[in-house]
Design a protein that fits this description.
This protein is α+β, with helices and mostly antiparallel strands. The chain has a single domain (about 1-80), classed as SH3 type barrels (Roll). The chain is built from 2 helices and 7 strands, in the order βαββββββα. The strands form 2 sheets. The protein has a 5-stranded antiparallel beta sheet with strand order 6-5-4-3-7, with no helix packed on it. The model has no long low-confidence stretch (mean pLDDT about 90).
Length: about 110
């Protein structure tokens, strides 16, 4: 469940999107909660939704319940960096900068 990065993070890391993790800071870009910011509290992979801090609704008895938001409707504004995540970013950035060989780069072998 990946979410797009903010423009600042795109320029800094050289990638467009990254899987969402707990404790990432995000902003909602689409839907009823558009414009609201918060920290990811749970990534619910079974339902393909992300729960964000401060985005709740109240049940009939007044108890708050988190609203599930699709990861594609979020934008990551701050990453929680770990060693594994740093390696993932480096690997994706390296692959993104990869250029396919052109016809000039490939030398044709003569066939008998």
């Amino acid at each position: 469940m990946s979410a797009p990065l903010s423009k600042d993070l795109r320029e800094k890391h050289g990638i467009r999107s990254i899987p969402v993790r707990r404790d990432d800071e995000v902003i909602v870009k689409r839907g009823k909660s558009k414009g609201r910011e918060g920290k990811v509290t749970q990534v619910y992979r079974l339902k393909w939704v992300v729960h964000v801090d401060k985005i709740n609704r109240e049940k009939a008895n007044g108890q708050p319940v988190p609203i599930g938001i699709n990861a594609s409707n979020l934008e990551v504004t701050k990453l929680k960096m770990t060693k594994d995540r740093r390696r993932l970013i480096e690997r994706k950035a390296k692959a993104r900068n990869f250029t396919a060989p052109t016809a000039d780069d490939i030398q044709m072998k003569e066939v008998d």
